[in-house]
Amino acid sequence: AQTVTQSQPEMSVQEAETVTLSCTYDTSESDYYLFWYKQPPSRQMILVIRQEAYKQQNATENRFSVNFQKAAKSFSLKISDSQLGDAAMYFCAYRSVRGSEKLVFGKGTKLTVNP
Amino acid sequence: EAGVVQSPRYKIIEKKQPVAFWCNPISGHNTLYWYLQNLGQGPELLIRYENEEAVDDSQLPKDRFSAERLKGVDSTLKIQPAELGDSAVYLCASSLSLYNEQFFGPGTRLTVL
After folding, report:
1. Closest approach of chain B CAs to the CA of A53, in angstroms?
2. Which stretches of B1-113 are assigned E, i.e. beta strand?
3. Cβ atoms of B108 and B7 closer than 8 Å
4. Of B15, B63, B67, B5, which is closest to residue B36 (Cα–Cα)?
């Protein structure tokens, strides 16, 4: 079974600075998807960024980018120019392209942005 | 476009009482998911629907949990009877199909006393 590990329960960053959230995963599959979701206090999960395993190029969405290291099974999220609105729980998630295709989530990292 | 709607947002009940959660997915979304999110954890899938058919309910505790999706639109998740350990957030999500992005609702926070 696939597992997702987020080793940083909490992180903090100064406004306008850059922060990197770590995620590792375990799988025997070669083709899959990886995601970062943001969950603010309102509890609504919002997709931040998505990476297809077959793509070597790291995904980027505005201030959010990932460092995908397939051999190391590592998928970190970099947030540049951090804003107060970035404060939230961030979850890393894995999804197979076959089988049940369900999302497997890590335990999350709580990000605090200090003004 | 309206997002995924869930109600109620909060529910407090005594143990052994029944409780039900309602989810209205985004219009046109065929796939609907119910997730359980315990405190300090990521969501875990309880059940997935393709239209009105439950196609993955392996994680649903069937002795006390049940779900339905009548006419392939709205869905209801029920717990009867509720136990103290059921206190959690219950999230609903929907997607156009299994292979599309999942959109989440705001969840229902259940407290069982």
Report:
1. 15
2. 5-7, 10-13, 19-24, 31-37, 44-50, 53-56, 65-68, 75-79, 88-95, 103-104, 108-112
3. yes
4. B67
Give residue A106's identity as a one-letter amino acid code.
G
Q: Does B19 touch chain A if contact means CB atoms closer than 8 Å?
A: no
Torsion sign over Cα B61, A6, B108, B102: negative
| Cβ separation A101–B41 shorter than 8 A | no
* Signed CA dihedral, B88, B94, B100, B103: sign only: negative
pLDDT tens figures, A41-89: 888 899 999 999 999 899 999 999 999 999 999 999 999 999 999 999 9
B113 touches chain A (CB under 8 A): no
Residue A99 clears pLDDT 70, i.e. is over it: no
A101 → closest Cβ in B98, B106, B109? B98
CA–CA separation, A40 and B106 (whole Å):
10
Strand partners of residue B13: B112
Interface probe with B: pick from A34, A45, A100, most Cβ of B within 10 Å: A45
Answer whether A42 sits within 8 Å of B106, measured CB to CB: yes
Partner residues linked to B93 by β-bridges: B33, B104
